[in-house]
Amino acid sequence: MLLAKKIATSLFAIVVSICSVQAQTQLPIQHTNQHNTLIANQKPTGNAAALGMGGMRNTGPKIQIDNSELFNYNWDSQSVNGAYAGLPIPAVKDIDVTGYVAPVRGRLTSPFGYRARFGRMHKGVDLNLRTGDSIVAAFDGRVRITSFDRGGYGYYVVIRHDNGLETVYGHCSRIIAKKDQYVRAGQLIALGGSTGRSTGPHLHFETRYMGIAINPADIIDFDNYVTHRDVFTFNKAQCEKTLSARPAKKHKATSKRKTKKSASKRRGSKKKK
Ligand SMILES: [Zn+2]
């Protein structure tokens, strides 16, 4: 059994190396310089499986970051969005999202995006559940954070997946998975609840690539509990544009004027005294 696995791994390594040789010879001349830079930035890896399917599909002139490098990077950071600081983020990256399992079987109750009511971005989606419902891992991966955030996520879990994504599960009533535990897609990791900044039981679910929040609905069809496609193409510029989306700054200017006015009023009243 172990021998068969070893043989399969070496065969996969051979296939991967053949694929990358082909990819190099197929590159147009104008891309050569760029590609050389990319190769220079790559670290040698003996573990072909860690490359992931995304690595094989990326034959274009994109920055290549292999998932084994991602996997160990800043592993013990308690930061959700800053754990990849220092690594170059590719402009475009194909992510293998086959093997997805819906974390809960609830409907989407609040989308990803700017919430005018709270004046901030909602960097995930909210999925309906009842307190105590099972929350399962969306993909295979290793649990990076299990923690409590009183004013935000409540009890939450962050999993770094083999495909390069990280997912965040917030407002849990109880965490089941342990830090550093390897979990399979569909495996129980927590129970649903309403801890942290939450007004009722739901799962706050985030999908991130190298710390950058991706709208989970771009990857997942939440009505049917499946992914839209087998490969999701992460686009850094597109994500950053979405994340920086804010309404016109009119509101801010008004509040500034108000502050100035009240400040002068306060000064005035002080003088009177
Ligand atoms: Zn939420």
Gross CATH architecture of the largest domain: Distorted Sandwich
Overall geometric form: globular
The CATH homology group name of the largest domain: Glucose Permease (Domain IIA)
Bound ions, cofactors and other small molecules, one mention each: zinc ion
**Main β-sheet, in a few words?**
8 strands, antiparallel
* Domain count: 2
Name the helix and strand elements from N-terminus to C-terminus, one letter apiece.
Answer: HHHHEEEEEEEEEEEEEEHEEEHH
Alpha-beta content class: alpha+beta
Oligomerization: single chain
Walkthrough of the structure:
- The structure is a single chain.
- This protein has two domains: 71 residues; 136 residues, Glucose Permease (Domain IIA), CATH 2.70.70.10.
- It is an alpha+beta fold and 273 residues long.
- The C terminus is likely disordered.
- The longest helix is centred in the first third of the chain and has 25 residues.
- Zinc ion binds next to loops.
Could you list some keywords that capture this structure?
single chain; 273 residues; alpha+beta; Glucose Permease (Domain IIA); 8-stranded antiparallel sheet; 3-stranded antiparallel sheet; 7 helices; disordered C terminus; binds zinc ion
Entry summary:
By secondary structure, the chain is α+β, with helices and mostly antiparallel strands. It is globular. The C terminus is likely disordered.
Topology diagram in text:
Blueprint: H1 2-26, H2 32-41, H3 52-57, H4 67-72, E1 92-96, E2 108-110, E3 113-115, E4 120-122, E5 125-128, E6 134-136, E7 141-149, E8 154-161, E9 165-172, E10 174-175, E11 182-183, E12 188-191, E13 202-209, E14 212-214, H5 216-219, E15 220-221, E16 226-227, E17 231-235, H6 236-243, H7 250-272
Antiparallel strand pairs: 1-17, 2-5, 3-4, 5-13, 6-12, 7-8, 7-11, 8-9, 9-13, 10-12, 13-14, 15-16
This protein binds zinc ion (ZN).
Zinc ion binds next to loops.
